[in-house]
Amino acid sequence: MNISLDQAMIDARAAGEIGDTLRFIEFEPCVLVGRHQAVSQEVQLDYCRANGIEVGRRITGGGTIFMDPGVLGWALVCDKRALGTTSLAEITQKVCEAAARGLSMLGFPAKFRPRNDIEVEGRKLCGTGGFFDGDTMIYQSTILGRLDPQVMLSALNVPQAKLAKRGLDDASKRVVTLEELLGGPPDWAKVKECLATAFAEDLGIDFTPDTLSETETTRAGELFATEIGTDEFVYDIDDPARDASVHSGQIITPGGTVSAYVRVEGAASRTIREVLFSGDFFVAPPRIVMDLEASLRGIRVEDVPKAVSAFFEDAGAAGLLSIQPAAFTDAVLAAVGELEGAP
Predict the structure, then answer these.
(1) Mean pLDDT of the 322-333 span
(2) Burial class of residue 54 in the structure, from the number of CB atoms within 10 Å of its CB (0-12 exposed, 13-18 middle, 19+ buried)
(3) Domains along the sequence of the chain with CATH
(4) Which member of 11, 31, 75, 266 has the greatest number of CB atoms within 10 A?
């Protein structure tokens, strides 16, 4: 329902039914996969079912996150032009720097760490992400109040080898909580006050405390019932590699991982029948990935680089936040075995 409220606020802001809004969000235990991620690859579904942990899909990109009452979320929904730039990368820095200043009011040195984290002395406190829907922007973050690494790692499907390689088998090496920084449980009311103050001062948006409007709750209820709350939406991308006829390839870039799952047909299997992209990348708007997938159907393998380039020229490559268009091309070519150096 929280994800449905995100989309409802975007729709209401675009329609002029609400003003620029900052919403603070609380969750029961749940795992939220990014808009383009494959659920079975990211989540320990049996553990989550056995322990009453919900599984949902965000409308924003990025990696999978674990949420519970020890984590506070916030979402800024506003007209992007109000922030003095229409570049999502520039807006990311501007919003994150404001959030970092607000958190620093609590008595520790929070800083923006590109591409989209807020850290304290090298340890991550907040992850963030957002996208544009026309002139409306949603930008979101999670703040770690307290953390149970064992529950989090049990709910997420993270290979032990990957944890050890990145030093994540001991989560305290990478992340920090407000409870640790403050020496006790956070005063969430104070946290909210500091963030709202910093956003108002740094972004020039005036906030007045209020409750959700009937418009927002009605829209959210409809979205929950017909789309975002359905298994069809949550499991839209589940385990695309389970079909033996599907070829898969993966590209790891500084801006995120892109996986391509490709079916080919025709003479010498040179024509793309269908392609599915997944990964922890951020693009804006998220719909652009589904449109790219559709545009590649019927394209010859050798024409993929030109087709991807033309698609983003028409769609506006400025919408990409964390990766370049070539990452999608390389993932497809890796899947069909035509990328130099690919297995």
Answers:
(1) 93
(2) middle
(3) 2-234 (3.30.930.10), 240-335 (3.30.390.50)
(4) 31
